[in-house]
Amino acid sequence: MAEILTANETDIARAGTLLRAGELVAVPTETVYGLAANAFCEIAVRNIFSAKGRPFIDPLIVHVHSAEQVAELADVSHPFFKKLADAFWPGPLTLVLPKKDRVPAIVTAGEPTVAVRMPAHPLMREILRAAGVPLAAPSANPFGYVSPTTAQHVQDSLGERIPTIVDGGACACGVESTIVFVADEPRLLRPGVITRENLEAVLGVPVATEKGHLEKLADDATAGAQLAPGMLKKHYSPRIPVKLFAHGAFPQIECAGCAVVFQARKNPEILAKLPAGTQCFWLSEDGDAAEVARTVFALLRRLDGENFSSVFIEKAPDSGIGVAVNDRLSRAAN
Ligand code: AMP
Ligand code: MG
Questions:
Q1: Which residue among 14, 22, 159, 225 is least packed, with the fewest CB closer than 10 Å?
Q2: Where are the alpha helices (DSSP H) in the chain?
Q3: Considering the entire predicted model, what is its pTM?
Q4: Using CA atoms, how far apart are residues 265 and 281, in angstroms rounded to an integer?
Q5: DSSP state, 159?
Q6: CA within 13 Å, CB half, 294
Q7: Does the beta carbon of 91 sit less than 6 angstroms from any atom of ligand 1?
Q8: Which residues contact 244 (CB under 8 A, 6 or more apart)?
Q9: d(CA 214, CA 223)
Q10: What whole-number distance in Å separates Cα of residue 192 and Cα of residue 257?
């Protein structure tokens, strides 16, 4: 099992020293827990990929503490970079920018661009300061499994493979960062709690949705060869079968021993129509989109640990933060 460090001064200094020396440390952020390593240390970054079983063609996000650190990693001259960083950093937004030479190719999967984020989580900021180097950190889960939103989730699925986890409590956002490719025509590569509408309001131009890096590779059979069949489509996936149903609809359940997850609490008359033995859950009392995002991965993990034959999940409304929730749910269900 991994050792769990906390937010005291000694532990933060220790996490910083370990990271600077090239060790892996799982860290809390406001999105999900990350598995961090010194971004300038190629061997350390390689160890992230082996601990997660992540294919080397899937590039990592580099986390920074300061504007100076961003400039060490990337070309920040595009005017949209400043607009987005001023509006949303520190926070759950990742910006894809032209990379500088000193960023090792393993971090960016050989791409000429690097994904950079300045996280807001106070403990993560202290860890970054203590480490004194930018930290490459993907989600701290085995590749393809549900992302972790507590230190215990990390312990449960990676505890045998990594030495250290810093416990910073449950993540406030609960889904991974929004990713934007910064260019004259900016593109949304992954939806998150910062929505397309939020981005467009700041930039004053439309932000088109584009396939993510791996999905694009999967379209290209040769480049996609590193991806085992099904590795890609199935992401954020629990072991139990997940089926989705439309927002506001009623699930068609034929089998026994199922779980049903609603976006909001339902009244007893509705629940009484479900087959006997069906167990019901909801992601938020009143269907609050931010609360749904915060709780969805934790509930998927919890249900995965119980003996349901399958789980039926109601989709979120397809707007605002609901877009990010539905993105993760549709991958979990694939
Ligand atoms: P994770 O940290 O596990 O949430 O995954 C990070 C994701 O960021 C990757 O799977 C990519 O989709 C995306 N990403 C990272 N670097 C780049 C890049 N240079 N260009 C495009 N997408 C990137
Ligand atoms: Mg991930």
A1: 225
A2: 9-20, 42-52, 67-73, 79-88, 105-108, 122-131, 151-158, 196-203, 213-219, 268-272, 289-304, 322-333
A3: 0.96
A4: 8
A5: T
A6: 13
A7: no
A8: 312, 313, 314, 315, 329, 330, 333
A9: 10
A10: 32
50-64, 135-149, 186-200, 246-260 — which is least confidently predicted? Answer: 246-260
pLDDT value, residue 43 = 98
Cα 213 to ligand 1 centre (Å)? 7
Which residues neighbour ligand 2 (ion) by CB within 5 Å? 139
59 within ligand 1 shell (Cβ under 6 A)? yes
SS3 9: helix
CB 34 within 8 A of CB 63: yes
The answer, yes or no, to whether residue 325 has pLDDT greater than 90, is yes
Ligand with an atom nearest the CA of residue 110: 1
Q: What is the pLDDT of residue 101?
A: 97
Query: Which two three-digit tokens encode residue 16?
Result: 């910083």
Report whether pLDDT(228) > 70.
Answer: no
274 CA from centroid of ligand 2 (Å)? 34
Of 218, 216, 198, the C-alpha closest to 289 is: 198
Mean pLDDT of the chain: 94
The one-letter code for the residue type at 179 is I
Whether the predicted pLDDT of 229 surpasses 60: no
Q: 98: closest CA among 73, 74, 80?
A: 74
Query: Which of 31, 54, 58 to mutate for ligand 1's pocket (most ligand atoms within 8 Å of CB)?
Result: 58
With tokens 């661009």, the residue in question is 113
Is residue 195 a contact partner of residue 92, using CB atoms and an 8 Å limit? no
Domains and CATH numbers, the chain: 3-209 (3.90.870.10), 242-332 (3.40.50.11030)
Task: Answer yes or no: is pLDDT of 129 > 80.
Answer: yes
Q: What is the mean pLDDT of residues 169-177?
A: 98
pLDDT value of position 108: 98
